[in-house]
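Standup notes
- HV: blocked on the assembly model, inputs below
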Amino acid sequence: MDDPGDCSAALADLSRRLDSQAAFVGSLTHALKGLLSGLEGGLYLVESGLRKGDAERVKSGTDMLQRNLGRARSLVGNTLYYARDREIHREEMTSQEVLSECASSFARLAEQHDVTLEAVPGEGRFHGDRFGIQALLANLVENAFESCGKKGGTDARRVSLQARRQPPWIVFEVTHNGRPMDSNTLSGALGPVYAPSGSDRAGLWIHAAWRIAAAHGGSLRAEPVGSGGERFIAVFPAEGDDPSAGRGEEVGHGAT
Amino acid sequence: MGQPRKVMVVDDEPDVVVFLRTWLEDLGYETCGEYDADMVVDSALREAPALLLLDVNMPSQSGIQVYRKLREEGPLQGLPVIFITGATDLQLFGSACSPLPEPAARIEKPIDLAGLEKAIAVALEGKGQT
């Protein structure tokens, strides 16, 4: 790299990557604090429930602990992909089990926030990194809930998860009718280097999802739907091989 | 012992609301909860709590914006508010909230229950005990 211009561009790129990593660490810290509060809450409910002989409270506590362990797994998945290029450890799974796990872990949040959450698992076995796929879907669903929360008004809030085989791909879609992400944040988050501004966290987790899709040889994109809301479409090679048809950016266009 | 005092817990994380409401009820307080920042003012007017525990980082609007509205609404101007949030948010609070009165307390997550219990007692001091 003898050309000063090349050197300057490399430094600028490195600087953006460092900004992105620093923002991720900040967001991760915030998420860990929420996670710890959930674990402490679950433990409190279990311990106090046992003291009082209140089986319902104990059950509520174990449910809380399980939900937050799921969040911990998702955070680990995100961190593994955000920190560096990760070697994919693929295992066989079905879209049904992946979507069911995701929908189940968000069921209580949906109830509390008055969001109708539906999962349409479709059919299809595929190979992928379970940690990564779960983290990606959790990021997209969390974003959908936040978008619904920003929507305001009294219209029903809806989030739907769908999966389908479109050989050689497996396609996941997360659709919400909340407020779409602003276009600047979205275009930055759905790209190789993303340095968020200010306290923006939503873009960071979408970017983490983009990295997971890219590491699998797939893609993640977004499109507007209806009179509001948006759909995120994640496409993965179903068999884990590198298909000759690119990264699946065009797969699923025009899907309902 | 006087009437139980009602504490309202506001957080977009349902687990935090359930946890804090259960803990507060074990301490003898009445409680109510709200997950939606947009609904806090209406809920507070309806429930008439003696104290508000308020998260800062919420999706539709921040706790700081909610706090500003509470201070603008006549019947709620004197309602004590304790912020419960992450350190980053507390740093933001310093500048974003400067024209407003200080909250009763700021408690950092993960929550130190002993510290929160003291802060609640202080916030309610002079207004009767549980």
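- HV (later): unblocked. Chain B has one domain: 6-124. Chain B touches chain A through 26 residues (CB under 8 Å).
- Next: hand off to the docking folks.
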